[in-house]
Description:
The chain has one domain (2-341): Rossmann fold (3-Layer(aba) Sandwich), CATH 3.40.50.720.
Amino acid sequence: MKLLITGGAGFIGCHLAYHFGRAGHAITIFDNLSRRGSEKNLEWLERHGDNLRFVRGDIRDAAAIAEAARGQEAIFHLAGQVTVTTSVLDPREDFEINALGTFNALEAARAAGTHPIFIYTSTNKVYGGMEHTGVREGPVRYSFKDLPLGVSETQPLDFHSPYGCSKGAGDQYVRDYARIYDLPAVVFRQSAIYGPRQFGIEDQGWLAFFAISAALGQPITIYGDGKQVRDVLYIDDLARLFELAVERIDRARGEVYNIGGGPEFTLSVWTEAGPLLETVSGRQFAVRYADWRPGDQRIYVSDIRKAERELGWRPMVKPVDGLERMWQWIVENKPLFEPALAPSA
Length: 345
């Protein structure tokens, strides 16, 4: 197949490009290389990837994305603004990248002439803070009172923050293009994805950010009490899901799936992730605490049963194994991070 990956030089995008390229598909990467680490990921792909073509472009440029989409058989739309804090500081740019950019990508798919499969990476932030969901506080972690299997796709939408609104708008546009234009489109509402080649920052990619900070001997700030819980998903498991969605598009088209590690692969942000990272790395981390950030969920865990039932998918890589692989890659590539995280003069 001919595949287009917007944001293909990002963390998830480069892994998908590598995965599908090795399987014999022709890959076009569309990326403006604005994200930290994207140029390094592209260099890695050009050395190790197969069947690869790179187009430098911005998702806000409708003509550019339309040209890149022409003749493609599948489009994976990953390009986006990825942090809540940035969206609060500049909501217009956030809207233009996430909402307008997704609209541009959908219109490009509609005009591609090939009726391409369209997979959109949404976010669990479309469910908002879930303030009315019952939560228990335990000694080291929070838990849901009434959702033992996690949050399902029937959870009411509650867009919170400009980021939640812009990603949620894209989420709903993709669903409606499947209905109105019969586009074979799928929405993945993703939880915490992690793995090698992730240039994590404080507001996004927290497991990678913690590990990178530790490798550089820099302190880690924990907002809140560190008992917040997230389900974590290793990147190879996500790549396998994309492949299954393409293979089973007749079943997946028009559907929304909550995607993460599910109840079996959860970690509290620090009270559990911290000791695990210290065991994997063999290092003691310097930690400081700060106030809770607005809208921070005490717990979010994906109910992944729909993806299992309809696509035959379950995550396979346990957090301890995934963290070991990520840590090894960070150690082997430590020079890539030092300029980005070094204290300013």
